[in-house]
Amino acid sequence: MTAELTTERLLGLDALLSDEQREWQRRARQFATERIAPVIEDDFEAKHFRRELIAEAGAAGFLGMHLEGYGTAGADAVSYGLVCMELEAIDSGWRTFVSVQGSLAMSAIAKFGSEEQKQQWLPGMAKGELVGCFALTEPTGGSDPAAMQTFARRDGDDWVISGTKRWIGLATLADVAIVWAQTEDGVRGFAVPTNTPGFTATAIEGKLAMRASVQCDIVLDDVRLPESARLPGAAGLSGPFSCLNEARFGIVFGVVGAARTCLEVAIERSKSREVFGKPIGAMQLTQQKLADMFVEYEKAMLLALHLGNLKDAEAITPEQISVGKLNNVREAQKIARTARGILAGDGITSEFPVMRHMANLEAVATYEGTDEVHSLVLGRALTGFAAFR
Questions:
Q1: Is beta strand 278-279 parallel, antiparallel or unpaired with respect to 199-203?
Q2: Count of CB atoms within 10 A of residue 53's CB?
Q3: How far apart are CA 198 and CA 204, in angstroms?
Q4: Which of 265, 281, 259, 280 is nearest to 336 (CA)?
Q5: 278-279/274-275 β-pairing
Q6: Does position 132 have pLDDT exceeding 70, yes or no?
Q7: Structural domains in the chain?
Q8: Where is the Acyl-CoA oxidase/dehydrogenase middle domain (predicted)?
Q9: What does the pLDDT average to over 99-109?
Q10: What sign does the CA torsion over 145, 83, 69, 249 have?
């Protein structure tokens, strides 16, 4: 029995899923293993994102799949989470792509856009014919969006936006950027066509994680937009925060996929690597490590599923999403590090995916809320005191 079948049998996840949810998981696993896995090590090494696969992801229904109408799939939250898990089991960069496109850019338009904006952007984005990005984070403080310095001022009937954004996924590929800016009336969102004069996106170089995806700096130099570009339903930081919660939910499931891959690789390697005359998997210390890894993987998966069911029941809270993001990323990091140790020196080579997952998980731990931020979210919920400042 392969490690994959062993972990799936022990977990028994199938019994907790509907036929539709299992079908989404199967479809995502097939796409990830057939289209991404054969090229991901080369792409990570070459810092290459395969844009040609975007339309295939759209045809599979993965883009904005949790939304209703406008060519989206209207799938439930658990199904979306399972797709995130299967994509991230191969590489975090591809789950990030689906997250940025669907949970951030498309969700912002679906939640807060005008009917004209929805018709203009969402069908093409669902098909993968158009790409979106979500420009919130700034160079001086991703964890404090209330301090954003990007500003949109009125000039007659137009808006003029100036400022900078950093770590914006897909920006050099995007057709539309959802830009959040301060105004005289508070934070507002804008759907900015990326060919608008004054908009410049530059890919960030030197990354040691997320190398098979694209993150960028953005400069907005007096970008002039009509009033029709403003998202009319977005007022204040509740707008971007609601989109961030959608993305964080995908992470809760996604990192379980990375953990599962690391665990399965460690199991297989423990059977074939021999030390002191027998496979290391026959030694007690190794079995203890594998057992601990599996237990944490199982708990993370069950937590993700619980949160997915809460989300489908429209009963989930931001604090509960923080629990999932904080715990599951943390445990995935531990599982990846333990797997790397079981693989010994070979674990740092591209012969195995573990070191790549370790690097990517370091990035995932930082974005969509650091450990510290999510800890303070939970601390506030537990004590009633806000300790962010």
A1: unpaired
A2: 17
A3: 19
A4: 259
A5: antiparallel
A6: yes
A7: 3-127 (1.10.540.10), 132-229 (2.40.110.10), 238-383 (1.20.140.10)
A8: 133-223
A9: 98
A10: negative
State whether residue 255 is helix, strand or coil: helix
> What SS3 class is residue 49?
coil
pLDDT band at 78 (very low <50, low <70, confident <90, very high): very high
**Cα(334)–Cα(198) distance, integer angstroms:** 43
pLDDT at 146 over 90: no
CA 304, CA 301: separation in Å to the nearest integer? Answer: 5
Q: Write the CA distances from 358 to 99, 251, 258, 363, integer angstroms.
A: 20, 15, 9, 9
* C-alpha distances in Å from residue 345, one per residue of 5, 82, 128, 272: 26, 32, 40, 15
Nearest to 362 by CA among 210, 254, 250: 210
Dihedral through CA 224, CA 229, CA 234, CA 235, nearest 10? 30
d(CA 357, CA 254): 12
The secondary structure of the chain in percent helix, strand, coil, rounded to multiples of 5, reads 60, 15, 25
Of 116, 153, 366, nearest to 232 (Cα)?
A: 116
Give the up-direction half-sphere exposure of residue 323: CA atoms within 13 A in the CB hemisphere: 18
Q: Which two tokens stand for residue 60?
A: 């599979």
Q: Catalytic amino acids?
A: 368
Please tell me the number of Cα atoms within 13 Å of 123 on its side-chain side.
5
Listed residue (248, 104, 123, 265) closest to 189, CA to CA: 104
Three-state DSSP string of 257-323? HHHHHHHHHHHHHHHHCEECCEEHHHCHHHHHHHHHHHHHHHHHHHHHHHHHHHHHCCCCCHHHHHH
What does the pLDDT read at residue 11?
Answer: 84
Q: What per-residue confidence (pLDDT) applies to 6?
A: 74
Whether this prediction's pTM lies above 0.90 is answered by: yes
Instruction: For tokens 């979500």, name the residue.
Output: 134
Burial class (CB in 10 A: 0-12, 13-18, 19+), 211: buried
CB 169 within 8 A of CB 97: yes
Token pair of 55 as six digits: 């339309």
**Distance between the two ends of the chain, CA-based, in angstroms?**
53
Q: Quick one: which of 165, 181, 172 has its CA closest to 218?
A: 165
Which tens digits make up the pLDDT trace of 297-339?
Answer: 999 999 999 999 999 999 999 999 999 999 999 999 999 999 9
